[in-house]
Design a protein that fits this description.
heterotrimer, A alpha/beta (511), B mainly alpha (349), C mainly alpha (315), B: 349 residues, C: ABC transporter involved in vitamin B12 uptake, BtuC, 68% helix
Chain lengths: 511, 349, 315
């Protein structure tokens, strides 16, 4: 029998219909996958279920009882638990503090810490989710944090567990561990909603798949009756074709890092003695679990941080004091990890964001001071056309652009000067299928023109299909480069977890 | 309650926001007038008559708006870069100190050079005193709000020491005040009657120049970008620290000009009360102007009118003059809400 | 008498404890607000209106303790205004705080003038009297320094462990701390972040107002213009100095008050022969800046401080 019934949920934001008359049900002991592209409305639906939003229409009931809308508290009490894509934990507080928050009467005079600890330990044992209750969350690895999130839900006796893109941050082996945990949970009668856009994972773990496209359900099928191509077409609406890598001979070395270290506030360096080579006509992919030094590598190559030791060479010339301006002037195209946070200034106009990297060039300003607005507008119009940025014009506020168009704007800024080296940090994160294809096509075209590209991504499938060479990043160190086809996903997954292929041993630096 | 961003902010709505805020503040403050037992409409009428009703009142209002234009610009430009300079009061006194130091005989130039010279040293003094808070912010991550506020107290005590001690004018019959600015340094009067002085021209020019800088130059672009999204600005190659330091220098300089204009234009000599909180009121001016340099002019005129008018009103009906300060405080809060409502809508459910 | 000998007098220590009391209230109040993620720059105005309200209550014939409560209530009301702006509407905490300070201070002066239009010299009330704690007050030095104070000082000292216990040992304290670290985590556990933050700001503002009331009802017996004189800003500096911890806040406040008490005595001992009085008066402000500089780099400030939380906004 079904424990969760979602009926006719509709929610719109302005003119955008995020959820259009959605109905779903979830049985006890079942894993229901919710499949959809970025922006299809999965997160909105879950936010409605969890009381963060209220729906314009429709109802949700649990065990036949109607859930009052807009109340997270009520959803939790009714037994709904959610593990968000971005963890909702406080780094500076202990695991136990994070778990017991909200479980006690808020105005009690004291906390029952020992009782809570006992309950947590019992649960951890029952589900095989070991954690240290008194350690600060900030000291945990990503996989351990996810375990805390799941325990947080179980601690409150949830009967419906929602996981939003839970595997995005995990190694393939950690993903298998998560799947084993989910099986244990469903055996005990929990219902699980598994939100993802990764087809093979959905096929591996779920009992049924509900597919969302543009806010509406396009179909609910039993997983046994489904296959990749069919699900992909239901999700996107047409046959999915992603651009493919065409063979090309690598050219001269464009970027060379030798023995580069970068130190941060942490006791261990963010980048530890890394060597890396990117040639013309070549895409080198950096795989790894988030937080292993990718950001430091990206900041270094964006010109934001300087190496503590080692040399960075572009076209054989060693760089001294790196700055973003220097990198841009040396022909480095940079695509930042987070469009909204560091890619654009949302409140500024499209034209202003397009000139931000070249403010002091003679094309943009007189005497590095007086902005040539007419010229900038002309140039912007041209680039809007060339990169197919859908917007009202150069004067529109940038934050009103969709994610895909914002990314095209950044591509236009980074690629229009025909850079010889491109740093692409998570260039397709959060984009829909059309925009993904566009961005990847542009990167491949740049490679064809002779650029060397460093592609940082957490999506192993993306890296495998786009890169000439791969390196794996772990704890600030890089593996030796290898050709993607020469290793299995499992082998790469082990490397992402700190195993070194040469010895088969856990690396000495891992802990 | 749900707050949702509006897709488009209409120009009309944005322009009306401060006016609606001011009206709301007037309505809220009428509660105090009622409490004081005075008729509301008549009191406000008296207020505006006192501010604008005669040639004398009008020139007083304009004269008093001059320092507010400078401090309003100081706050507006700093807040644009999200550098919360709350120390305009202290910077104003630094400008006044510099004008007094150089303008009381140390340097003698022809009037045509002397006035600009005093303006420059005053602006430099106002800017330089901000060096401490701004470097503490950029290099030590010390919040600038508290340091600039605390510096206000320190600078006022310094002024008090100077005009009671080494700089005390022996001719002032015991009053704590510094010597007078030499004739060449005094800002000329603009009209034969009243106190309106050439400081106004400097203030208007400053507003225009700041507007040009914000709108047409790389500096203005950098200030806006750093204020709106420092991370993206940094990624694009804008140097955050230099931008903030430069903005602070301009902001402090503008506040310093207010001090020069008060000493060399209005009073003629430095006392401890040349500013009844112009530095703080400047924040209200900047908020009412929505940080727009040209809008600072009407905003300063309006708040000046409130102060000048409140004096007249309190003489006529028994309402303490502090009503003007209350009105300014309430206006700051009201303008925050009304500007927000131009960008967001609130949905109740 | 040498300057060093000042530290040996009980009078110095008693003065230190007296001076520290309003700072403790104000610093703890600000600390609670900031722990929940809200910077409260309204503190200076809230202390002013607390000082006025408590004093006025007693002047109008009210009882001292109900006067303290009235001050707290008024302070809490202004805290509510601050939180409606910063918590519910997500407006700039900086600008709102300055606005609240401008509003609260000017309203205090307005009301004072309104109620006492003709007073040329500030009228006086009978303030809290010293109440030597039986037994303890007979101890050497500490007896006179700590246990021969007014009840409000005892209340201030008691507030330190109470605030510590509330923050670190109760469910609501955990929610407050979490709201300052990661409000999304609080919402995800079914607790209303906005309510938690509002509650913290209201309670914190009440404490600040009591700090203000201490000045007119225990330290002095009258209300003057400008009598808070930057104590609120100093409290904000002390919160940074204390790394947002109640115990360290007490330590910082005592250090600070000690220097202030020393400064007053040093002026009398050394007099103007060394420094003009203005430089002595500058010391507290200079020290606050120094205190912030010392701690700012090491400070582990609440991660969500200054970050408004809007419900349902994408994380």
């Amino acid at each position: 029998m079904s424990i969760l019934e979602i009926k006719n949920i509709t929610k719109s934001f302005g003119s955008l219909v995020a959820n259009d008359n959605i109905s779903l049900s979830l049985d006890a002991g079942e894993i229901l996958a919710l499949l959809g592209e970025n922006g299809a409305g999965k997160t909105t639906l879950m936010n409605i279920l969890f009381g963060h939003y209220t729906a314009d229409k429709g109802s949700i009931s649990i065990d036949g009882e109607l859930l009052p809308p807009g109340s997270t508290e009520a959803a939790i009490k009714a037994g709904v638990g959610m593990v968000h894509q971005h963890f909702t934990l406080a780094d500076n507080l202990s695991v136990l503090d994070n778990i017991i928050l909200g479980t006690e009467n808020l105005f009690a005079w004291r906390q029952d810490l020992s009782g809570a600890r006992a309950k947590l330990e019992k649960m951890a044992e029952e589900f095989g989710l070991a954690v240290k209750p008194d350690i600060l969350v900030g000291e945990l690895s990503v996989g351990e944090r996810q375990r805390v999130e799941i325990l947080k839900v179980l601690y409150r006796d949830a009967r419906v567990l929602i996981l939003d893109e839970p595997t995005a941050v995990l190694t393939p082996q950690e993903t298998e561990g998560l799947f084993a945990t989910l099986k244990k949970l469903t055996d005990k009668g929990l219902g699980v909603i598994f939100i993802s856009h990764k087809l093979n994972e959905i096929l591996a773990i779920s009992n049924r798949v509900a597919v969302l496209r543009r806010g509406a359900i396009t179909g609910i099928v039993k997983t046994v009756d489904a296959d990749r191509a069919m699900l992909a077409e239901m999700m996107v609406g047409h046959k999915v074709t992603r651009p493919r890598l065409e063979a090309a001979a690598a050219g001269a070395v464009v970027l060379q890092l030798s023995g580069v270290s970068v130190s941060g506030n942490t006791p261990t360096p963010l980048l530890n003695n890394i060597d890396l080579e990117v040639c013309a006509h070549e895409i080198v992919g950096v795989a790894g679990v988030a937080g292993n030094g990718q950001s430091a590598l990206a900041s270094l190559l964006s010109g934001l941080t300087r190496p503590a030791s080692g040399t960075v060479e572009l076209h054989g010339e060693a760089l001294g004091e790196v700055t973003p301006n220097l990198m841009v002037s040396l022909g480095v195209g940079r695509i930042p990890e987070d469009r909204h946070a560091s890619g654009v200034v949302g409140e500024m106009a499209v034209w202003e964001n397009l000139i931000s990297e070249t403010l002091k060039s003679s094309e943009i300003s007189h005497g590095r001071f007086w902005i040539k607005k007419p010229d900038a507008l002309k140039r912007t119009e041209q680039l809007i056309e060339q990169y197919d940025v859908r917007c009202e014009g150069p004067l529109q506020q940038t934050k009103l652009l969709s994610g895909g168009n914002m990314q095209k704007l950044i591509l236009a800024r980074a690629l229009s000067s025909d850079p010889s080296f491109i740093l692409a940090n998570q260039p397709v994160r959060g984009l829909d299928e059309g925009a993904i294809a566009y961005v990847q096509t542009q990167l491949l075209a740049a490679r064809q023109r002779g650029a060397g590209i460093l592609l940082i991504s957490e999506d192993l499938d993306e890296l495998m299909s786009l890169c000439d060479k791969l390196v794996v990043m772990y704890h600030g160190e890089l593996s030796a480069p290898f050709v993607p086809k020469q290793k299995t996903v499992q082998e790469i997954g082990l490397m992402m977890a700190g195993h070194r292929p040469e010895t088969g041993q856990e690396a000495a630096y891992a802990n | 309650m749900q707050i949702e961003p509006r897709a488009n902010v209409s120009v009309l709505r944005a322009g009306l926001a401060p006016i609606i805020a001011v009206l709301a503040a007037l309505v809220l403050c009428s509660v105090l007038i009622v409490w004081a037992g005075a008729p509301v409409l008549e009191s406000y009428f008296l207020l505006f008559k006192g501010a604008l009703g005669s040639r004398f009142a009008l020139t007083e209002t304009i004269t008093r708006s001059i320092p507010l234009m400078f401090t309003g610009l100081a706050a507006a430009i700093a807040f644009r870069a999200k550098f919360y300079n709350i120390g305009a009061e202290g910077q104003l006194y630094c400008g006044a100190l510099a004008a007094t130091y150089f303008g009381t005989g140390l340097v003698v130039l022809p009037a045509l050079l002397m006035v600009p010279f005093l303006m420059i040293v005053g602006a430099l003094a106002g800017g330089l005193i901000l060096i401490i808070p701004v470097l503490l912010k950029t290099h030590m991550k010390v919040d600038e709000v508290v340091t600039t506020l605390l510096l206000n107290f320190i600078i006022l005590l310094l002024v008090s020491f100077l005009i009671e001690g080494p700089w005390k004018d022996p001719m002032a019959m015991g009053w704590p005040q510094a010597a007078s600015i030499i004739d060449e340094g005094v800002l000329p009067l603009l009209m034969s009657k009243g106190r309106l002085h050439a400081g106004l021209l400097f203030a208007l020019a400053a507003a225009f120049l700041v507007w040009v800088m914000m709108r047409f130059t790389v500096w203005g672009y950098e200030i806006k970008a750093v204020g709106l999204n420092a991370k993206a600005a940094e990624f694009a190659g804008i140097r955050i620290n230099s931008t903030i330091i430069r903005t602070a220098m301009i902001s402090g300089g503008l506040a310093g000009l207010a001090g020069v204009s008060e000493v060399a234009g209005l009073k003629g000599y430095l006392t401890l009360d040349i500013s009844p909180g112009f530095g703080y009121t400047g924040i209200a001016v900047a908020m009412l102007a929505q940080l727009h340099p040209l809008a600072v002019i009407p905003a300063a005129l309006f708040l000046s009118a409130v102060y000048v008018g409140a004096d007249a009103m309190s003489r006529a009906v028994a309402i303490p003059t502090y009503i003007a300060d209350v009105l300014v405080g309430v206006s700051v809060l009201c303008v925050l809400i009304s500007v927000m409502l131009t960008k967001f809508k609130i949905r109740w459910r | 008498m040498d300057l060093i000998e000042i530290f040996l007098t009980t009078g110095f220590w008693a003065a230190t404890i007296r001076i520290v009391s309003p700072l403790i209230f104000a610093t703890l109040g600000e600390l609670i607000c900031e722990r929940a993620g809200v910077l409260n720059l309204g503190i200076e105005g809230i202390m002013t209106i607390g000082a006025m309200a408590g004093w006025m209550w007693v002047y109008q014939g009210g009882d001292l303790w109900t006067g303290v409560m009235f001050a707290a209530l008024v302070g809490g009301t202004f805290g509510l205004v601050h939180s409606i702006f910063t918590v519910y509407l997500g407006l700039s905490q900086h600008v709102t705080g300055i606005g609240v300070t401008m509003f609260a201070s000017s309203l205090s002066y307005f009301i004072y003038r309104m109620m006492l239009p003709d007073a040329t010299t500030p009228p006086k009330i009978i303030p809290f009297q010293t109440y030597p704690i039986p037994g303890l007050s007979e101890l050497p030095i500490v007896g006179e320094a700590v246990f021969t104070q007014t009840p409000m000082t005892y209340l201030a000292l008691l507030c330190v462990p109470i605030v510590w216990y509330m923050l670190y040992r109760t469910p609501v304290g955990l929610a407050v701390r979490m709201a300052g670290e990661n409000p999304v985590a609080v919402e995800a556990q079914g607790i209303d972040v906005l309510a938690i933050r509002t509650g913290a700001v209201v309670v914190g503002s009440g404490l600040m107002a009591v700090g203000g009331a201490f000045i007119t009802m225990s330290a002095f017996d009258a209300f003057f213009f400008g009598m808070i004189n930057g104590r609120g800003w100093i409290a904000i500096a002390l919160v940074v100095f204390a790394s947002w911890r109640p115990g360290k806040a007490l330590l910082g406040a005592v250090l600070f008050a000690g220097l202030e008490a020393f400064q007053v005595r040093a002026q009398q001992v050394a007099g103007a022969s060394i420094l003009p009085y203005q430089f002595y008066l500058m010391l507290p402000y200079l020290l606050s800046i120094v205190a912030m500089v010392i701690m700012a780099r090491r400070a582990r400030y609440p991660k969500a401080l200054l970050v408004p939380y809007r419900r349902g906004e994408r994380v």
